[in-house]
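Marked as duplicate of an earlier ticket. Keeping the data here for the record.
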Amino acid sequence: MKEFSLCGTKRAENGKKAAKQLRAQGLIPCNLISKDGAQSFTVKAGDVRNLLYTSYVYAVKLNIDGAECLAVLKELQFGAVNEELLHIDFQKFEANEAISVSIPVKLEGFAEGVKTGGKLVKQVRSLTVKGLYTNIPDRLIVDVTPIELGKTLNVAALKYDNLEIQTAPSVIVAAVKATRASRQNG
């Protein structure tokens, strides 16, 4: 899992009016959620752009007025009309603590069913896994080579070292569907 450094400043006031004033200044209101409760802070809108608009999942090294901690993105709130970023929630965790995050899936290989005229279809974009942040990869690589025409690959068939897959075992990750051409040939 990649790391991202982010600096923030504690918020003096909470509420809609204060949040609106902060956004007008180019700041994003944020919360750091931990076992001890929540802490309100702000970050500069430009500082979080590379964290939000990417396919990677990051462990965020937060520095809030000199206090450092590790966190992951928990929730983003966008405006309904202009899709402007309104609020970010971060979940604090310890380096030796297992965390649960959603990781993108990447399909690799040439499926057997595709060789006979089928079409490979990716059914999920990401899977939820749990583990130490140092053991979590940037992407979950799924080998689709053994999938035959009309068959699927479920989460139950996947195994990764030092990771626990929390997505339901019955969820289909990839399938090879029959095409018109494969039906005519077979």
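See parent ticket for discussion. The chain has a mean pLDDT of 92.
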